[in-house]
């Protein structure tokens, strides 16, 4: 098991004082043993930043040490989900798109892991577009290796992502079989260790085409990405027979990430007969998280997600 840094045990306590809806996880795991992260430029002058805005949203940026925060339900049912908060690859909204969601999963017996992944930054990382993907693949691998410890069925491990975190989750879901081509995975014996068994994509960034979220792709590649980079990280173009079943959730009035992102991914899955479901809501906008403060049908998406997990056999 990768060692835990002393610092990361302090952070959940700090989160609690900053955001009333957050609580301590039982364990925080460092993703990379001894801090030996792939693509690390060893610049430690950058300090991690944690703040809560006037909107009440917790934001984490300048992430140097990526982690998994573990949330274990009272009675685990064997299913697990790794949650990737959104934030346009500039910050991570780890409260309403992280810990709050983990606690909801716990309420239905699912063990949840909130991923704190590295963000693309030329000051910190070489090949900055790879680092979030490296962390997410490593996160799935660690969860599968820890299945016995947390009473998890290794065949019922999913990935969930919100907005840009949804892009990360979709990228893992479509490119997991290429893990051994990335730094940090040279000794990986089987890429299946990094494969999510299902994915839940919440108002995800998907495409680099006409409906793209420009800010996310600029953060990944800068202002002059190559056509090859855009193609490789346009998730609907990378769907294959190896892509896991997927639930997509989106509001049609989303002005941040157009609903066509989910529709394109859904169509790509259906063309290959990969099980796919999509929940579309007339109202909800972008970044609604659990939608506790919203009225209308979008408020019920967690219940529909629960039903999907049961129907697909991930919750037994």
UniProtKB/TrEMBL annotation:
Alphabetized UniProt keyword annotations: Hydrolase, Signal
Gene3D superfamilies: alpha/beta hydrolase (3.40.50.1820)
Signal sequence interval, chain numbering: 1-25
SUPFAM superfamilies noted in UniProt: alpha/beta-Hydrolases
Single GO molecular function: hydrolase activity
InterPro entries: AB_hydrolase_fold, BD-FAE-like_dom, GDXG_lipolytic_enzyme
BD-FAE-like domain sequence ranges: 70-269
Superkingdom of this protein's organism: Bacteria
Record-given protein name: Alpha/beta hydrolase
Lineage: Bacteria, Pseudomonadati, Bacteroidota, Cytophagia, Cytophagales
């Amino acid at each position: 098991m990768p060692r835990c840094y002393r610092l990361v045990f302090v952070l959940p306590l700090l989160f609690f004082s900053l955001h009333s809806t957050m609580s301590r996880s039982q364990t925080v795991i460092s993703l990379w043993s001894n801090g030996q992260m792939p693509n690390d430029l060893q610049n430690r002058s950058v300090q991690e930043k944690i703040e809560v805005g006037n909107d009440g949203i917790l934001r984490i940026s300048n992430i140097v040490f990526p982690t998994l925060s573990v949330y274990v339900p009272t009675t685990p049912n064997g299913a697990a989900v790794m949650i990737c908060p959104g934030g346009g690859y500039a910050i991570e909204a780890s409260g309403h798109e992280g810990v709050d969601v983990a606690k909801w999963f716990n309420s239905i017996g699912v063990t949840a892991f909130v991923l704190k992944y590295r963000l693309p930054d030329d000051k910190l990382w070489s090949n900055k577009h790879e680092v979030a993907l490296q962390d997410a693949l490593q996160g799935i691998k660690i969860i599968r290796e820890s299945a016995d410890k947390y009473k998890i069925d290794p065949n019922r491990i999913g990935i969930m992502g919100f907005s840009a975190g949804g892009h990360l989750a979709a990228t893992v879901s479509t490119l997991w079989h290429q893990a051994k081509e990335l730094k940090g995975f040279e000794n990986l014996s089987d890429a299946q260790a990094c494969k999510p068994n299902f994915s839940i994509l919440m108002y995800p960034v998907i495409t680099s085409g006409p409906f793209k979220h420009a800010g996310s792709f600029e953060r990944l590649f800068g202002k002059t990405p190559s056509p090859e980079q855009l193609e490789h990280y346009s998730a609907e173009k990378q769907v294959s027979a190896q892509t896991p079943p997927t639930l997509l959730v989106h509001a049609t009035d989303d002005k941040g990430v157009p609903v066509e992102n989910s529709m394109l991914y859904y169509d790509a899955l259906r063309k290959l007969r990969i099980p796919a479901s999509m929940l579309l809501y007339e109202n909800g906008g972008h970044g609604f998280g659990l939608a506790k403060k919203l009225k209308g049908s979008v408020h019920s998406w967690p219940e529909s997600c629960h039903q999907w997990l049961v129907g697909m056999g991930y919750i037994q």
